[in-house]
From TrEMBL:
Coiled-coil annotated spans: none
Alphabetical list of PROSITE patterns matching this protein: PROTEIN_KINASE_ATP, PROTEIN_KINASE_DOM, PROTEIN_KINASE_ST
Name of the protein described by the UniProt record: non-specific serine/threonine protein kinase
Xref: InterPro entries: CR_Ser/Thr_kinase, Kinase-like_dom_sf, Prot_kinase_dom, Protein_kinase_ATP_BS, Ser-Thr/Tyr_kinase_cat_dom, Ser/Thr_kinase_AS
UniProt KW Kinase keyword: yes
Lineage: Eukaryota, Viridiplantae, Streptophyta, Embryophyta, Tracheophyta
GO molecular function: ATP binding; protein serine/threonine kinase activity
Domain (Protein kinase): residue spans on this chain: 39-282
Recorded superkingdom: Eukaryota
Keywords for the protein's UniProt record, in alphabetical order: ATP-binding, Kinase, Nucleotide-binding, Serine/threonine-protein kinase, Transferase
Amino acid sequence: MDCCFMFGRRSQHAVEGDDGEHSVKVFSYNELRKATQDFSGANKIGEGGFGSVFRGMLKDGTLIAVKVLSATSRQGVREFLTELTAISDIKHENLVTLVGCCAEGSHRILVYNYLEKNSLSQTLLGSGYSSIQFNWRARVKIAVGVARGLAFLHEEIRPHIIHRDIKASNILLDKDLTPKISDFGLARLLPANATHVSTRVAGTLGYLAPEYAIRGQVTKKSDIYSYGVLLLEIVSGRCNTNTRLPCEDQFLLEKVSSTYLQAFIDNLNTKWCQLHTEATIP
Ligand SMILES: Nc1ncnc2c1ncn2[C@@H]1O[C@H](COP(=O)(O)OP(=O)(O)OP(=O)(O)O)[C@@H](O)[C@H]1O
Ligand SMILES: [Mg+2]
């Protein structure tokens, strides 16, 4: 059985809130256990700093991605649901939709729409086989879509949301290769001393703006910096860090900020011109 966790006094599960409009769907643990076939290894689709992610199917056939959080058990149910209610209200074509959550006992689980084409880090930048053809049109669509999603978080949501962890694995693709930003608004779900990231600030090495990495100063600009790194990855089709390459080639940023920059920009200009020509052919 599932239910809706409502703000306001209308619901049986009511808590004090700003208004009665917001709701987040609450799944029982059993329901998610069934949907993922007992969180079976076969259904595991990924593992991030927040915990493991499983593919699942609800009784009505809806495909879901179930993210089992590992470090939030100390957060109370009410606090957890309050944080999530704010996120679940956010809808945009370029943002992953939060379908609901589970907060039973010590379980803290997030349920998202399942994105069948996986993340950019696996498909565009991954070393394994991917059947997706990332032509320039697709890359531009992805780059522009991510920018739209980010601008929505930065400019339209009240209060604004700074993502803090824009990177290829947080860009998921639907069947039409429409990009969807995931994991926005999650920073506050983790206790301060249990941040999942590879640095003490919430973010991922390689994508961190210098002022954020050094002083922990978070602004919209740090997201834009990360977006810039992502853009380089989208254009070049390679990961920003690849330690298997010779030393001088390992860091994409170093390459583009050195003598390669001009050639890189020239190449980019040529591709854009090609794309523009393609786009204007009737
Ligand atoms: N809604 C979803 N639909 C399809 N696959 C998903 C979905 N959410 C996550 N995944 C898959 O699970 C993987 C792990 O996601 P998760 O967000 O837990 O970790 P991450 O993004 O790799 O790292 P981090 O925890 O630092 O954000 C993703 O790379 C993606 O392959
Ligand atoms: Mg993620």
